[in-house]
Write a structure and sequence with these properties.
Structural class of chain B: alpha/beta
Structural class of chain A: mainly alpha
Number of strands of chain A: 2
Distance between the termini of chain B: 54 Å
Number of helices of chain A: 13
Order of helices and strands of chain A: HHHHEHEHHHHHHHH
Largest interface: A-C, 54 and 51 residues
Oligomer: heterotrimer
Number of domains of chain A: 1
CATH class of chain A: Mainly Alpha
Chains: A mainly alpha, B alpha/beta, C mainly alpha
Strand order of the largest sheet of chain B: 12-10-9-8-6-7-17
Number of helices of chain B: 11
Order of helices and strands of chain B: HHEHEHEHEEHEHEHEHEEHEEHEEEEE
Helix content of chain B: 25-40%
């Protein structure tokens, strides 16, 4: 058994925040990046919570039956895409409210996942590997905090790529114009509905992969309580990040790190008020939101066609 | 089964029946079959297959189902709201249930009490509640003294641990949980008085991400044995195994999840009290109002020892277990101070397992790091 | 096929009748389609769809017991549905009803403790008012933040919801805990005398009446008073309303507060009529279910009542599916998901008939082409 004789005292708190920021943020990161793409195209998909759970179940099941966690990740992404396609198609119909459809798909996805996932609770599926970025340290705690999963790295890379792509590629331009003004898009010859559907499918794919992270790495298990609103929060984080991929990254890290604060402080013996400590990420996010918004200024960067922010 | 087939064939023959008619007949046929049996209803607060608490109840329900003359119906994920009151009523009104197992503490007040008053002919067995003389006679509570197993887990953990620090991840600081934390710590301290238990409360019964974070945090603080009191210990045991530390299980046997680090665990055997209550109902004996039992009565049991348990640990645990089986061992024997320094059990006094004061526990013993 | 139906209907029924019945026929038709889809799902997992539907009917509406079960479960959903529908009139998307409900429950329990010793009617009134006030404050905060700080109300209400629930848990298990509540941490019980009772002869508490009354009042105000008109104006075009002299800020915060009051009231009723104390069990997803009820009812307070009863019925009959057919609890979620998706998608059919009929001009004319075109 590993020797953990050296408890690291108060260093445990910032280390846990760092580790948590990396570990816990990954599903938020992937889902919010996916939703960022979707919302840039002018559609909001609140169903990502259901997609996340569905992806977690599908990924776990695929990994269990195939023996390879990476197949699980791909399966999760594909399942997520299917739900994204459903959402995209349904919302392309006239007069259909995308917020309402999103919440319905959340319910449907959650129900299907729980239903189909019943036989997956007992067995253990192969887990995703992680890269030990802490190999330089002797301390097992630092080593553990710096065990980084490839999906996190993919998420970070994706944030950078999207940041660049939104601004400097034709594809990014098309996405943004479709999301900002349908008339301008048509004038420029961009097809509105297929673009939106593709964006929603991509968002679903990423959300599914985010779910696979939960079930195949951290916490690395499938049961019915796996997600506690992470999908919905991720959608909120996109708005918090003003639809900027890099800010999605920072927002996810902030949220993940703040979420690790509660348990870390408790491990130090500070247990009173742990409900309030566990609410830290929400308080922090709300605080920053209030501090950085200004009245009478339309939320800059909001895609014009997004139903949520239409004034 | 044959009764149903007969009905079906009859329907097909006499009505020249369509599939619909056959389905209807098989449905009513199934219902008619229930009339001779005692219908037992079981209600779970979470999913039946959570690898933990609800699953342990479901296993007992399955055992009851196999008993002759019993029809068992159950519902999972029933929240502690008006929904459970209606569920109980539905089981009675629609399915003719005569004995209901309400397996979550929060069901008792006001729901079980209200239903017990409304249906005096139906028996209500509540898990974990505090039935008193003021409550209806057709209601009762049952529970297991799992703290005996926690004590033994503590003994084993103290032998295996090198840092003499254990991490305990708990949902909420309610008396049942506190009793487990304290028993575990007292057991460990009987081996090494300097043993400490670090407690983290996650706030709810099933929060996998928080539980994983708590597990990692405790291990970072130097705990090399993890145990828990949450609805589904799977995540915590798996996290302990990934980080290479020991673990003690709860509710059910999680040894399969941690082949290297699993020491032992505290498990329920709800089938024992379930069967006692069902038999009382079947034979018309009065409802057992206050049913408790520990290792001796078979209400709880220990998981088999893992490979990492040193021989001395096994010996000591086995000898204490033997004393418990004879009813000769007291866990809560004075003097005991809580972790703020106050004396909670005076020197010379002790609280036996059946002592009701133990079911109202509101302190953490000295050596537990954490506040309620 | 749709065209055929419309053609047939056009011959049988007068035009205006069809147009006005659209609001009921289309959702009903969608419900049937949803049931069909669920039947396919049920069949694919090896159960008989007919048995399932029989049980769904029996469990929801089949007997006096089932009816009361349904109504009881529908009662909180009416109020949490209003919590979404009223702010929606002003153009806001509020999804924080769960937190407002939690705080409403907490404050109601506190009010009961503070008013202990007074006659029951006073205590009950105090509880309901306290719950409504804190709910109004909490969601009103969201509206205020939107107007005065430009913070999107959907996120702020969501975050406030989590914070509200955390506050409830903190107080209920900490400073306000009743030591005698043992393994179910709760506030001091309000006492049997102070509980809101059942409707005469029924097993359904007065909360249903309170909820229905609120829905009726909301509908009346929105449809027939200048307040309602002004609210819709603000929701439709804030800039124009401002120019017309309406104090938009006040209306928006007011609408949010009114919605929050409904959610807080739901929490207070949970304590006063069901739990008898505030504890974490009041957070049972009523707020989130209310979002769906509101959207399904197209934010119409009157329609919220039947939709809430529908959802209550599905929840009530879910138990029967579990007990009789051994189906897991998740089947009810799947059913609800399918129902919602199909009914909400059917929105696209609304107005189609009107569009076609009104343009009874040669199909080749530009007007007809423009009217029938879809985005």
């Amino acid at each position: 058994m590993t020797d953990v004789s050296g408890g690291i005292g108060w260093w445990g708190v910032p280390l846990a925040v760092l580790g948590g920021a990396i570990r816990v943020s990954t599903p938020f990161l992937l889902v919010s990046l996916g939703e960022c793409i979707t919302e840039k195209s002018g559609r909001i998909n609140l169903g990502l919570e259901g997609v996340l759970i569905m992806g977690a179940m599908a990924g776990y099941g695929a990994s269990l039956y195939s023996g390879s966690p990476w197949i699980g990740v791909v399966a999760a992404g594909l399942v997520g895409s299917m739900f994204g396609l459903l959402h995209g198609l349904l919302c392309s119909l006239r007069r259909v409210n995308d917020i309402a459809i999103g919440i319905s798909i959340m319910m449907l996805g959650t129900g299907l996942a729980f239903f189909l996932g019943k036989p997956l609770v007992q067995p253990q599926a192969p887990m995703l590997p992680s890269i030990p970025f802490g190999f330089w340290s002797d301390s097992p705690q630092i080593q553990s905090a710096l065990q980084i999963n490839p999906l996190f790295l993919i998420g970070v890379a994706l944030a950078v790529i999207l940041h660049f792509a939104f601004r400097h590629t034709r594809w990014g331009l098309q996405l943004r114009i479709v999301g900002d003004s349908e008339d301008a898009a048509r004038a420029l010859g961009f097809s509105v509905i297929p673009t939106r559907i593709m964006a929603t499918v991509t968002g679903g794919f990423l959300a599914g992969v985010g779910g696979a992270f939960l079930s195949l790495y951290y916490p690395g298990s499938w049961n019915e309580g796996l997600s506690s609103g992470q999908g919905i929060i991720a959608v909120a984080l996109v708005i918090f990040a003003r639809w900027e991929p890099m800010r999605c990254l920072w927002a996810s890290l902030l949220f993940g790190g703040a979420g690790a604060l509660g348990p870390a402080l408790q491990a130090m013996g500070i247990t009173s008020g742990y409900y309030l400590l566990n609410a830290a990420p929400y308080v922090l996010t709300l605080g920053i939101l209030i501090a950085t918004c200004a009245p009478n200024r339309k939320i800059s960067g909001a895609p014009g066609e997004l139903s949520l922010v239409r004034q | 089964m044959s009764k149903i087939d007969l009905n079906r064939r009859k329907a097909l023959l006499t009505l020249g029946g369509t599939a619909a008619a056959a389905t209807m007949m098989s449905f009513t046929g199934r219902f008619a079959l229930a009339a001779d049996n005692l219908t037992v209803g079981v209600i779970y607060v979470g999913p039946r297959n959570d690898f933990g608490y609800n699953q342990s109840q479901a296993q007992a329900a399955m055992a009851v189902k196999k008993m002759p003359g019993i029809k068992m119906i159950d519902e999972e994920k029933v929240p502690e709201t008006i929904a459970v009151q209606k569920t109980m009523e539905a089981m009675i009104e629609q399915d003719g249930a005569k004995l209901i197992f309400a397996t979550s503490f929060g069901y008792f007040n006001p729901y079980v009490l209200k239903m017990a008053e409304k249906y005096p002919q139906v028996r209500f067995a509540h898990c974990g509640g505090m039935w008193t003389d003021k409550d209806p006679k057709n209601a009762g509570s049952f529970f297991g003294y799992i703290d005996e197993c926690e004590y033994l887990s503590g003994v084993v953990a103290a032998h295996a641990s090198k840092t003499k620090k254990a991490g305990f991840i708990a949902a909420k600081p309610i008396p049942q949980v506190l009793r487990n934390i304290n028993s575990f710590t007292l057991g460990a301290q009987s081996v090494d008085p300097t043993f400490t238990t670090h407690v983290i409360f996650t706030g709810d019964w099933s929060m996998p991400v928080k539980e994983a974070e708590a597990a990692n945090g405790l291990i970072d603080q130097g705990c090399d044995v993890l145990t828990c009191h949450v609805d589904g210990p799977k995540v915590i045991v798996e996290t302990a195994e990934k980080r290479g530390v020991y673990s003690c299980g709860y509710h059910a046997d999680q040894a399969a999840l941690a082949p290297k680090g699993y020491l032992t665990g505290a498990e329920w055997q709800w089938a024992t009290p379930y069967k006692m209550l069902v038999e009382a109902a079947q034979t018309g004996k009065p409802m057992i109002n206050f049913l408790r039992g520990g290792l001796k009565e078979g209400f709880v049991k220990m998981s088999p020892y893992g490979s990492a348990v040193p021989a001395k640990g096994k010996q000591m645990a086995d000898s204490i277990k033997a004393k418990m089986m004879k009813g000769e061992f007291t866990i809560f024997k004075g003097p005991i101070k809580d972790n703020t320094g106050k004396v909670v059990i005076a020197a010379g006094t002790s609280q036996e397992q059946q002592d009701v004061a133990l079911e109202q526990m509101n302190y953490l013993v000295a050596g537990v790091v954490g506040k309620i | 096929m749709l065209i055929l139906n419309e053609a047939i209907m056009a011959k049988i029924l007068p035009n205006r009748f069809i147009v006005s019945m659209e609001g009921i026929l289309i959702p009903l038709g969608a419900l049937l389609v949803a049931m069909l889809l669920f039947a396919v799902f049920v069949f694919s997992v090896g159960q008989s769809p007919l048995e399932v539907f029989y049980l769904l009917y029996k469990g929801a509406f089949g007997s006096s017991f089932s009816w009361q079960n349904t109504l009881l479960r529908a009662s909180p959903l009416i109020l949490t549905g209003l919590a979404v529908a009223i702010p929606a009139q002003a153009g806001m998307v509020i999804i924080g009803g769960e937190g407002a409900l939690a705080l409403g429950a907490l404050l109601a329990a506190v009010a009961a403790i503070a008013l202990a010793g007074f006659p029951p009617l006073i205590v009950q009134a105090g509880m309901l008012i306290a719950g409504a006030l804190i709910g109004a404050f909490w969601i009103g905060l969201s509206g205020w933040l939107r107007n005065y700080r430009g913070v999107n109300e959907t996120i702020s209400s969501l975050l406030l919801s989590y914070i509200g629930i955390a506050l409830l848990n903190h107080f209920v298990e900490g400073p306000l805990k009743d030591p005698a509540s043992l393994n179910k941490p709760s506030t001091q019980p309000i006492g049997d005398a102070n509980m809101i009772g059942n409707l005469p002869g029924l097993d359904v508490h007065y909360g249903l009446v309170i909820g229905a009354a609120c829905a009726l009042i909301a509908w009346f105000v929105l449809k027939f008073t200048t307040t309602g008109f002004a609210l819709k104006l603000v929701g439709g075009n804030p800039r124009a309303s401002q120019m017309a002299g309406l104090r938009v800020n006040l209306w928006i915060v007011g609408a949010a507060a009114a919605g929050g009051a409904a959610a807080g009231l739901a929490g207070a009723i949970e304590v006063a009529a069901v739990q008898g104390a505030a504890n974490s069990a009041v957070v049972a997803g009523y707020g989130y279910a209310g979002i769906l009820v509101a959207f399904l009812a197209r934010q119409n307070p009157l329609a919220i009542i039947p939709v809430a009863i529908l959802i209550g019925g599905i929840n009530a009959s879910g138990g029967m599916l579990q007990r009789r057919l051994d189906m897991p609890d998740a089947s009810v979620l799947v059913l609800q998901g399918i129902v919602f998706v199909v009914i909400l998608t059917s929105d696209t059919l609304m107005g189609r008939y009107r569009a076609r009929k009104q343009l009874a001009v040669p199909a080749t004319s530009k007007v007809a082409m423009a009217g029938g075109a879809t985005t």
